[in-house]
Specification:
Order of helices and strands: EHEHEHEHEHEHEHHEEHEEEH
Pfam families: GGDEF
Radius of gyration: 20 Å
CATH architecture of the largest domain: 2-Layer Sandwich
InterPro entries: CheY-like_superfamily, Cyclic-di-GMP_PDE-like, GGDEF_dom, Nucleotide_cyclase, Rev_trsase/Diguanyl_cyclase, Sig_transdc_resp-reg_receiver
CATH superfamily of the largest domain: Reverse transcriptase/Diguanylate cyclase domain
CATH class of the largest domain: Alpha Beta
Strand order of the largest sheet: 2-1-3-4-5
Helix content: 40-55%
Protein name: Diguanylate cyclase
Domain Response regulatory: 9-125
Domain GGDEF: 175-310
Structural class: alpha/beta
Length: 310
C-alpha cells in the first residue's frame, strides 16, 4: 500500500504515447495508481506536487533524459523513492548506458510482462517500507540498531530480518530474490601490516564502492569482519552473473591509497538465489558464504592466492 493506506502511486514518464498507455494499463491492473507523463521536463515539478511512491522513466537514445531526471529526483527525494528505467529489450546500447551511467537505478524491459514490472516495484517498495518500519521501531516496539558502526552499512541482524521478509513475500506472492556474499581479499595480512585503523579505512572504502555499485532497491550489509552481503530483491539466478561482473569490475577499477601507495582492492564473491536455495535467513546467508569460499578455492587453484596488490 502507498501513503495513508491508498494504492501506491507511480509516476511514469514515457514519451511514446502508445507505450505509456500500455504501461498505465499494466500497472493499473496490478493495483497501482498511475500518473502518466510524456515530457521529461515536467517530471520534477510534478514529482514535487504528487510525491509518488515510485517512478518509472523510459530510457532511450540519443539524449537519455531519463538518467538526468533520475539524478535530480534522487537528490530531491534523498534516495527514498524507488525508481526503475524502462528500456527496450532489444536495445543493448541503452541497457549498457543505464547500467554504467544510470545512478545504480534498476532496469526493467519496456514492453515486458506486467507481472515482472509489478514484482520489481513491489520488491522495492517492500524493502523501503521494511527499513522505515524498523527505523521507527514498529517491529519490536523499540528502535532497531540498523547500522554497522564502522562502515555505516546495515548490520548482520537487520539484514537477516530483511531476508526473512523477502522469504515470506516470495513464498506468499511468488517471485525470487538473490543473496550475494562478498569478502575483501587479503584483508588479514593487510591489517597485520598496516594496523587496525588503516584496515577499518579499507572496509569503509569497500563499503562505499559497494554502495555505489548496487541498485537503490538492494540492501548492503557488513556481516563479519571483512565480509559483506547484498540482498537483491526480484533478482533471479540468471541475472546474478551480470551483477557479480559489475561489482567485480567496479572493484578492479577502484584504488585505495595507503602511505602514499595505491592499493588495488580485490573482492571474492558468491551467491545463492531463492527458490533454488531455501532455508532460514541464517542458512541462506551461510549458503552464500559457502559459495564464496568455493569460488575462492577455485581461483586459488587456477590462479594463485588472492591478495591486495600495492
Amino acid at each position: 500500500m502507498g501513503k495513508a493506506g491508498q494504492p501506491p502511486t507511480v509516476l511514469v514518464v514515457e514519451p511514446r504515447a502508445e507505450d505509456l498507455e500500455r504501461t498505465r494499463l499494466l500497472l493499473g491492473e496490478a493495483g497501482f495508481r498511475v500518473v502518466p507523463l510524456t515530457r521529461f521536463d515536467a517530471a520534477m515539478p510534478l514529482f514535487e506536487v504528487i510525491r509518488p511512491d515510485a517512478v518509472l522513466l523510459a530510457a532511450q537514445a540519443p539524449d537519455y533524459s531519463a538518467v538526468q531526471v533520475a539524478r535530480r529526483l534522487r537528490q530531491m527525494s534523498r534516495g527514498t523513492v524507488p525508481m526503475l528505467y524502462l528500456v527496450d529489450s532489444h536495445d543493448m546500447d541503452a541497457y549498457r548506458f543505464c547500467l554504467e551511467k544510470g545512478q545504480c537505478v534498476d532496469i526493467v524491459s519496456r514492453g515486458g510482462s506486467g507481472a515482472e514490472l509489478a514484482m520489481k516495484l513491489h520488491a522495492q517498495l517492500k524493502l523501503k517500507h521494511a527499513v522505515l518500519r524498523a527505523a521507527a521501531g514498529e517491529e519490536s516496539g523499540t528502535a532497531l540498531a540498523l547500522h554497522d558502526p564502522v562502515t555505516g552499512l546495515y548490520n548482520r541482524p537487520f539484514l537477516l530480518a530483511l531476508i526473512g521478509q523477502e522469504v515470506r513475500r516470495a513464498e506468499r506472492y511468488g517471485g525470487t530474490f538473490s543473496l550475494v556474499a562478498a569478502e575483501v581479499g587479503g584483508y588479514g595480512p593487510f591489517r597485520k601490516e598496516f594496523g587496525r585503523g588503516m584496515a577499518e579505512r579499507l572496509l569503509v572504502y569497500s563499503a562505499v564502492v559497494l554502495g555505489q555499485t548496487v541498485r537503490e532497491a538492494d540492501a548492503v550489509a557488513r556481516v563479519a569482519d571483512s565480509q559483506f552481503a547484498l540482498l537483491l530483491p526480484g533478482t533471479p539466478a540468471e541475472s546474478v552473473p551480470e551483477v557479480l561482473s559489475r561489482v567485480s569490475a567496479r572493484f578492479e577499477a577502484a584504488r585505495f591509497q595507503v602511505e602514499g601507495r595505491v592499493v588495488r582492492t580485490t573482492l571474492e564473491l558468491g551467491a545463492v538465489s531463492f527458490p533454488d536455495a531455501v532455508g532460514t535467513p541464517t542458512q541462506l546467508l551461510a549458503a552464500a558464504l559457502q559459495e564464496l569460499r568455493r569460488t575462492r578455492e577455485f581461483r586459488r587453484t587456477v590462479g594463485g592466492p588472492t591478495r591486495l596488490s600495492v
